[in-house]
Amino acid sequence: NPLITHKYSADPYAMVYDGRVYLYMTGDETMYEADGNIKKNNYSNIDTIRVISSEDLVNWTDHGDIYAAGKRGQATWGNNSWAPAACWKMIDGKPKFFLYFANSGNGIGVVTSTSPVGPWKDPLGHPLVSRSTKGLGVCEWLFDPGVVIDEKGDAYLSFGGGPKSDGSKIVKLGNDMISF
Predict the structure, then answer these.
(1) CB 3.0 to 4.6 Å from 145: which of 23, 38, 85, 90, for a disulfide?
(2) Predicted confidence (pLDDT) at residue 105 exceeds the cutoff of 90
């Protein structure tokens, strides 16, 4: 029972908010040669995140594409938006939504919204995690973010990997969810 068949969608990440499950997924498109033949995908054009939601896990609503990075996106400093992770947190008495994504394997970005489906804004104007982030150790690929908020309200972001890494990384996020 596929949830979405009309678009490429990978790397799903679930978030529950107000009785709905939201799935955020890497969006991709078929790549073509100049002559119109399909070519091998090099994943360089992935600049969308797909979002669907459901109240019953049977019937799904397609909320369209989120342009997180790239020329059409909010985070114009990045080229790609892969493997999203989403969460929400009450900040100043209001729900705020956070969508973390990988800029290929080169960093982790974040966009924010007051709704689980946007519109989204880039609150930093640069990656949250980059190769210049202090304390990373050896981290070959800065990708595949995951976010969790524990029972005390503390939030953690995990990411990274690669054969030349000294392991995946976990950082504690600030109360604003966009700092350490």
Answers:
(1) 85
(2) no
Do 180 and 172 touch, CB atoms closer than 8 A?
yes
**Can you tell me the distance from the alpha carbon of 43 to that of 64, in angstroms, rounded to the nearest whole number?**
20
Whole-model pTM over 0.90: yes
Question: Exposed/middle/buried for 164, CB within 10 Å: 0-12, 13-18, 19+?
Answer: exposed
What DSSP character marks residue 63? Answer: E
Ramachandran angles phi, psi of 115, nearest 5°: -140, 150
Distance spanning both ends of the chain, measured CA to CA: 40
User: What pLDDT digit, counting tens, does each position of 29-41 carry?
Assistant: 888 899 999 988 8
Instruction: Measure Cα distances from 58 to 14, 104, 118 in Å.
Output: 15, 32, 23
